[in-house]
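Peptide deformylase
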Amino acid sequence: MTRRTVLTDPNDELRIPSESIDVSEIGSKELNTLIDDLIETMNAENGIGIAAPQIGVHKRVIIVDDGKGPEAYINPVIIGRSLRTGEFVDEGCLSVPGVWGYVKRHRTVRVKALTRTGKEIVLKAEKLPSVIFQHEIDHLDGMLFIDKVTEYTKHPKMQL
């Protein structure tokens, strides 16, 4: 595992939408290395989520750590959202250091993705995990949380 450099705003690389991973790539040395490097980088930066574009790789891979350890999600797609939204936490981002703010996020999301081994899963994320998934999937679409901030704050709570 290698710690990679996290790209920071205003780097244009962060605004490029990511490409889907072909199923034939699952299990490959390249994809496994990418996943391991993402986990290593996220942990080294004290994050709870990271997306491949944040290290300059435009592939649809995210890592989410909801407190149970980091998990990789390949080609994640939000397939359902609660009608209710809220500003749950001060969001921060490894790619926007020193900036925090409130973002309206859906309270619950259903996400379809592939695991590292290629198994298709559908999961329901609520509360903080819901925020992490929405934040990281935004990265895959070339969007940063500062594009959606409703109010900037000065208190760091988490970095995604």
